[in-house]
Design goal:
Helices cover 5% and strands 36% of the residues. It contains two helices and 33 strands. A hairpin with a 2-residue loop joins strand 31 and strand 32. The chain is globular.
């Protein structure tokens, strides 16, 4: 009997099962904040029930990225002015390697090497990885790729290559690795701000070769939005439709659009939530989230959420909007957190209303709403796993919520004297990975 096909099949199955347990992208293996991992503990805090804890040199908002036996995380080291790329052993938490990843590029040639604004720092984007490489991105435009042993593969700086970012706040989009390409949006205003950028600056989608870092294409994305309303800080979310059409969904500039990943060309767009382009300061922070044939786009600063049907072509009319939330005190609004798609529903964490809601994707009907505990802001995007919704606030209070009933299952303190925790919780290989301002925790696994 020839056992080779059986052995090959078993190895392939093991590889697929391993990959399904990973958290390779900021929004996880499905690009929607969800994981199929089960068996997660609720009996822990920052002092007990922890498998391991690793100290970080300084703060950052990038979520931990887990692929195979490696955990990747970026950080700033303010005293030395360093941008750090870190790799930990998934089982022990031991540091496998640490690299000073920053080029030293400072926008406009001035300011800090680790931070541009007091509310953020250059370690806000999450890394992205596969079984062969990890790519770190920093808010000053540095992109640096390493192999799993920490050997440098390539590096470049987007501001050096394409001009300084014209953004009011620190650039923080996380890269997307999909279908053999590395994607990055740069959605910015078309005039200088804080001495940076230039008049007529373009917003664009960038595709790179993840093996070499070379540019595959740069596609300009126009918008009629004005001033800060042109700016966006989310990531590109991939989607394959029922007809097999592949696309990247992008939100920003008062509209949502779908693009061909092969060349960046626009397939469709819908907008706007800013009639007459009257509002000049409606920058967008959340990424889109896709589920049940619609893409959610969160208009900023207490404005509605829009569910736009996927599959259209060209400039879509308002009939393409399957539903939108109410504008009057609805809990369905989000200024910063990206919503979650899990167990067939959307989960919207509102930092405006301090509430978490489960939503029917087909109708926008609210199935339940929970007032979130504590006094600090809830701005890290929610994660779905093991039948629970996992959230963490600025002060490090972790909340576990039953996905079916909306019942608060646990309030777990994960930090002391924290003020700006913004990294989402990652789930991989039976464990929770929780990043605070100074530490990275592994719980379970």
């Amino acid at each position: 009997m020839n056992k080779t096909p059986l052995i090959t099949a078993l190895l392939l199955f093991a590889s697929v099962s391993q990959a399904a347990q990973d958290w390779p992208h900021w929004r996880g293996p499905n690009h929607d904040g969800s994981s199929a991992v089960t068996g997660l503990s609720l009996d822990f805090d920052h002092d007990k029930g922890v498998s391991w804890v690793a100290d970080l040199a300084g703060p950052g908002a990038g979520t931990a990225i887990i692929v195979g036996e490696h955990v990747y995380c970026s950080a700033t080291e303010p005293e030395g002015g360093l941008l750090l790329a870190l790799c930990f052993d998934r089982k022990s938490g031991d540091v496998l390697w640490e690299r000073a990843a920053g080029s030293g590029y400072k926008p406009g040639g001035k300011g800090s090497l680790t931070q541009m604004h007091g509310r953020s720092n250059y370690a806000s984007p999450s890394a992205v990885a596969d079984s062969e490489r990890v790519i770190f991105t920093f808010g000053n435009g540095d992109m640096v790729a390493y192999d799993t042993d920490g050997e440098l593969l390539w590096e470049r700086n987007l501001q050096q290559d394409f001009g300084d970012f014209a953004l009011q706040w620190t650039f923080s989009a996380s890269p997307t690795l999909w279908e053999g390409q590395l994607f990055m949006p740069v959605l910015q205003r078309d005039q200088p701000v804080s001495g940076l950028g230039k008049l007529g600056a373009e917003s664009y989608l960038l595709a790179l070769d993840p093996k070499s870092g070379k540019t595959n294409y740069r596609h300009v994305r126009p918008t009629p939005a004005r001033v800060e309303s042109r700016e966006a800080y989310g990531s590109l979310i991939p989607f394959i439709g029922a007809n097999g059409r592949k696309q990247l969904v992008c939100v920003g500039g008062d509209l949502v659009s779908g693009h061909d990943p092969a060349n960046g060309e626009e397939l469709w767009r819908w907008g706007t939530w800013n009639e007459g382009n009257r509002q000049r300061s409606w920058r967008v922070v959340p990424s889109p989230v896709i589920g049940n044939g619609v893409a959610l786009a969160c208009a900023p600063k207490g404005q509605p959420i829009f569910a736009v049907n996927l599959g259209g072509k060209g400039k879509l009319q308002d009939a393409a909007v399957r539903w939108q939330s109410s504008e009057r005190r609805s809990p369905l609004t989000s200024d910063v957190p990206t919503p979650l798609f899990y167990q067939g529903s959307f989960f919207v964490l509102s930092d405006i209303r301090q509430a978490l809601s489960r939503v029917d994707p087909a109708t926008g009907e609210i199935q339940w709403t929970l007032k979130m505990p504590g006094d600090a802001l809830w701005r890290a995007s929610p994660t779905g796993a093991d039948g629970k919704i996992w959230c963490i606030n600025h002060a490090g209070l972790l909340a576990a919520v039953d996905a079916d009933s909306g019942r608060l299952l646990a309030e777990i303190p994960m930090a002391e004297d924290a003020e700006q925790i913004r990294a989402s919780i990652a789930v991989a290989h039976g464990a929770l990975f929780v990043r605070t301002e100074q530490q990275l925790f592994c719980i379970g696994g």
